[in-house]
Amino acid sequence: MKAFFEGIQYLFVNILFAPLDFLRSLELSSWFVANTINWIFMIICAAAMVYWIKQLRIFDEAGTEKQDTTAHSFFK
């Protein structure tokens, strides 16, 4: 059983986290390149937020959104 867990450790530490270790060592020379994953996630989140707000505006202008506060029984 010990070999099984050591195999899992080897998989995660030496194989799956190797790119992140590379980015961590790269931070000393270039902070912006080391944080590329963070920049990519921030761009994806910003694009999703813009899309969501545009969709909210479309439904608000069409008048199809139900804005009645008594939509749920516990608001009565």
Strand-residue fraction? under 5%
* Backbone CA Rg: 24 Å
Helix tally equals 4
Please bin the fraction of helical residues. over 70%
Number of domains: 1
Low-pLDDT runs of 5+ residues are: none
How many angstroms separate the termini?
Answer: 59 Å
Quantity of strands, as a count = 0
Whole-number mean pLDDT:
88
Helix and strand pattern: HHHH
Largest sheet: none
The geometry reads as: elongated
Question: TL;DR of this structure?
Answer:
The protein has helices at 2-16, 18-26, 31-34, 36-62. The chain has 76 residues and is mainly α.
SSE map:
Blueprint: H1 2-16, H2 18-26, H3 31-34, H4 36-62
Can you characterise this structure?
With 76 residues, the protein is mostly helical. It has one domain. The chain has 4 helices and no strands. The longest helix has 27 residues, at 36-62. It is elongated, with a radius of gyration of 24 Å. The mean pLDDT is 88. This is Uracil phosphoribosyltransferase. Keywords: Membrane, Transmembrane, Transmembrane helix. The chain crosses the membrane at residues 32-53.
For the structure shown, list the relevant keywords.
single chain, 76 residues, mainly alpha, 72% helix, membrane, transmembrane
